[in-house]
């Protein structure tokens, strides 16, 4: 809620003086005994308030005032979003440099074959390269030429042709034709350039195409502000599986309430133009429907869902749980110090290795501490150096500075975190996560941990925890993303954690798709283990047990891990892992030099 909406709801009647809202009565002192009027000012630019009545003197931030009424101040969210965006480094793109020639004869013939006229080709500024291929020049909203896509000017023949369509490397992922459309009118969004040309050819001129096919969503981030200003979209992607999946996904990112979709009986818009003609193309576009928001469906209409899957990178969990699945919430439980965070962060390394974006909320540790540990898990013992704290003489471990640069570059685009002074209110967290999903295509979220989150409900602690898990679960389902949630058990005894212990609430277990317990192995545990497991308990440091398994139903399976205190990695007898960043290490001997004290430049004077 912003200040004006707030004033309308809670501070009536009021006047506006410059950039200040000035109600008759102060919401804190109500003017005191003398019913003093107009003493309270709420500043729209600074987001602060003050009461000038001497014995009141209430002052503070709008967020505090809003909280008092159970509302949340919008500007707080804007600040978090800005911080979140600043994590996203400014990308540097290469300007296109291929020489643009007039359309080749072959290209013209090929366009004509696909029912695209020369005047349409001219409108889109289609060109050819020196080999006669078709060039689709892409312009950003400021009309700057930022990307070229190139296509062979004939039917693609498998085996004979290497590629059908490609891009000039390093270009900016904008939408094809975005420079020529009217954002006030419904914009048709297609999967490829030919569909875009086909719609235009048929008479629907407000049309753009995504740049790199359905798997690549970078354009959402790149064009975010522009997309935000558009009034309505009509999505027309290919009618194959990938296209249908992408339509759902794109609609969620752009906002389901401003998206319609076209459902055609042929593969794509160009084929409709080719086979049925331009009227049919227009008919399909005009009959586009909003996404159903009705909650009553016919069971037969429900489509078998493709679930987005990422692997945990741990054979045991991936085998029994089917990896990190989209739409699922997994609860990780276990005593403090049992290794929940350590294990989860280790699986993050594998998510990054799969080039999937993830997010971590760490309610207890600072982001720099999380990074310090994570970096050690990424590099493994081989690249960790020991150094002496010059002040205390204590020996510490750290990643070799040269290696740190390499791994930072390796994971820069894949791991996001929540601001430190971030609110621990679950609604704010979910808004930021939604933004992260929509704009940056983040697919996996680690929430560490449940206890540090709050709601603004005045209910008891346990009900609140149940409510929070419920909110997180609906978020996961709605956007088909994966959440790993750390929850501490209520009771702390030395036994392996039981279901009922999680946060003290059975709701949490009911809501979770999977529940995983992690415990550090104690002597007691080893002593009381069954005979056939005894040895494993004796030989290892940590045990993981699957307590609930919604997809496959297998429960109570155990797996054992050793812990390396230097690398912070947990490992099984399968040994230690290497990741792709290591290919960027030029001089592997760099690690032999453990003297990492800063070298001073040689100085001749
Ligand atoms: Zn007052």
What can you see in these coordinates?
The chain is of the alpha/beta class and 605 residues long. The chain folds into three domains: 3-71, DNA Primase, Chain A; 105-290, Dna Topoisomerase Vi A Subunit, Chain: A, domain 2; 327-569, Rossmann fold, CATH 3.40.50. The chain has 20 helices and 27 strands. The strands form six sheets. It has a nine-stranded mixed sheet, with helices on both faces. A five-stranded antiparallel sheet has the order 1-2-3-4-5. Strands 11-10-12-13-14 form a five-stranded mixed sheet, sandwiched between helices. A hairpin with a 2-residue loop joins strand 1 (14-17) and strand 2 (20-23). Helix 6 packs across helix 10, helix 6 (193-202) packs across helix 11 (278-286) and helix 13 packs across helix 14. The protein is globular and about 80 Å long. The termini are far apart. The model has no long low-confidence stretch (mean pLDDT 88).
Radius of gyration: 29 Å
Residue-averaged pLDDT, rounded? 88
Which CATH top level class of the largest domain fits? Alpha Beta
- Number of E strands: 27
Globally, the shape reads globular
Number of domains as seen in the coordinates? 3
**Count of alpha and pi helical runs:** 20
| Secondary-structure content class | alpha/beta
Bound molecules: zinc ion
Give a quick account of the main beta sheet: strands, pairing sense, barrel closure: 9 strands, mixed
CATH superfamily of the largest domain: P-loop containing nucleotide triphosphate hydrolases
Helix % is: 25-40%
Q: What name does CATH use for the topology of the largest domain? A: Rossmann fold
Poorly predicted regions are: none
**Distance between the terminal alpha carbons, to the nearest Å?**
63 Å
Task: Bin the strand percentage.
Answer: 15-25%
Biggest sheet strand order reads: 21-18-22-23-17-24-25-26-27
CATH architectural label of the largest domain: 3-Layer(aba) Sandwich
């Amino acid at each position: 809620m912003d200040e004006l909406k707030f004033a309308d709801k809670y501070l009536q009647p009021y006047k506006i003086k410059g950039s200040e809202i000035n109600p008759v009565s102060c919401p804190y002192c109500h003017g005191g005994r003398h019913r003093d009027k107009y003493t309270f000012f709420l500043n729209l630019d600074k987001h602060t308030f003050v009461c000038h009545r001497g014995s009141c003197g209430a002052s503070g931030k709008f967020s505090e005032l809003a909280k008092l009424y159970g509302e949340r101040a919008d500007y707080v969210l804007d600040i978090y979003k800005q911080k979140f965006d600043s994590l996203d480094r400014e990308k540097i793109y290469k300007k296109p440099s291929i020489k643009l020639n007039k359309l080749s004869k072959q290209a013209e013939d090929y366009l004509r074959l696909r029912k695209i006229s020369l005047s349409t080709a001219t409108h889109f500024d289609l060109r050819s390269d020196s080999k006669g291929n078709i060039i689709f020049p892409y312009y950003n909203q400021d009309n700057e030429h930022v990307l070229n896509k190139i296509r062979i000017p004939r039917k693609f023949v498998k085996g004979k042709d290497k590629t059908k369509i490609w891009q000039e490397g390093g270009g900016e992922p904008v939408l094809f034709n975005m420079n020529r459309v009217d954002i006030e009118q419904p914009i048709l969004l297609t999967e490829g350039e030919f569909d875009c040309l086909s719609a235009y050819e048929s008479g629907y001129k407000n049309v753009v195409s995504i740049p790199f096919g359905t798997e690549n969503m970078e354009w959402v981030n790149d064009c975010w502000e522009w997309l935000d200003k558009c009034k309505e979209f009509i999505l027309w992607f290919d009618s194959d599986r990938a296209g249908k999946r992408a339509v759902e996904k794109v609609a969620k990112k752009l906002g389901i309430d401003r998206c319609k979709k076209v459902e055609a009986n042929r593969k794509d818009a160009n084929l409709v133009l080719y086979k049925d003609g331009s009227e049919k193309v227009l008919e399909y576009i005009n009959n586009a429907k909003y996404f159903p928001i009705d909650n009553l469906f016919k069971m037969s209409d429900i489509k078998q869902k493709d679930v987005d899957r990422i692997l945990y990178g741990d054979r045991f969990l991936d085998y029994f749980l089917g990896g990190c699945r989209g739409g699922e919430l997994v609860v990780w439980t276990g005593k403090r110090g049992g290794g929940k965070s350590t294990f989860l962060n280790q699986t993050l390394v594998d998510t990054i290795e799969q080039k999937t974006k993830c997010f971590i909320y760490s309610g207890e540790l600072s982001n720099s501490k999380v990074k310090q540990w994570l970096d050690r898990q990424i590099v493994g013992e081989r690249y960790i150096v020991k150094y002496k704290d010059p002040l205390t003489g204590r020996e510490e471990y750290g990643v070799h500075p040269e290696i740190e640069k390499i791994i930072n570059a390796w994971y820069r685009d894949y791991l996001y975190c929540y601001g430190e002074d971030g609110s621990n209110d679950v609604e704010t967290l979910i808004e930021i996560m939604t933004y992260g999903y929509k704009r940056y295509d983040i697919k996996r979220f680690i929430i560490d941990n449940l206890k540090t989150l709050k709601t603004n409900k005045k209910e008891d602690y346990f009900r609140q925890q149940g409510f929070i898990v419920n909110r997180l679960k609906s978020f996961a389902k709605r956007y088909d993303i994966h959440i790993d949630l750390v929850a501490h058990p209520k009771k702390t005894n030395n036994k392996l954690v039981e279901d009922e212990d999680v946060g003290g609430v059975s709701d949490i277990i009911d809501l979770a798709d999977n529940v995983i317990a992690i415990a550090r192995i104690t002597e007691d545990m080893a002593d009381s283990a069954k005979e056939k497991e005894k040895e494993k308990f004796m030989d290892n440091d940590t045990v993981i047990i699957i307590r609930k398994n919604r997809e496959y139903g297998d429960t109570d399976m155990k797996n054992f891990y050793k812990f390396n205190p230097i690398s912070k990695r947990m490992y099984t007898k399968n040994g230690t892992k290497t990741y792709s960043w290591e290919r960027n290490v030029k001089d592997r001997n760099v690690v032999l030099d453990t003297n990492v004290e800063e070298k001073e430049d040689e100085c001749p004077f």
